[in-house]
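Handout, page 2. Input:
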Amino acid sequence: MLLSRLLIVLALYFWGTTVASVSRLRERSTVNGQCTGKDGAPGVCIDTTSCTDDGGSYISNACPGTPDNIKCCTKPSCGSGGNCRWTSQCSSGLTTPNLCPGPTDFNCCLPKSTSPPPASGDLGAKILAKAKTAAGTPCKL
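Output:
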């Protein structure tokens, strides 16, 4: 009787330890994964050098389980009144790539009243078309 109670207590102890270990694993962050930065800003867990090189700032202890150089990087201002956030979290649906640190789905989310800037190819084509029709010395291409 005493042995069976001891076995039950041990089983419950190890089962509880296993459940606690599994829940701790779920709390781990991943490189290029989501995090919450200063003042609740959306962030991305990336290398600190990449963060600052791309104009962001980072906080510690927001990307648990990652290497020491991986921190939660945020960039609260980008584009014309926008902020960096995950594309899936951009309520306006207007995003501009390459203005934020991190992976391709962490973009500059612009307010609804702002249009994203034209793609570089479109702007170049407009300038070239204008140059071809401008008065003055003809342009030979």
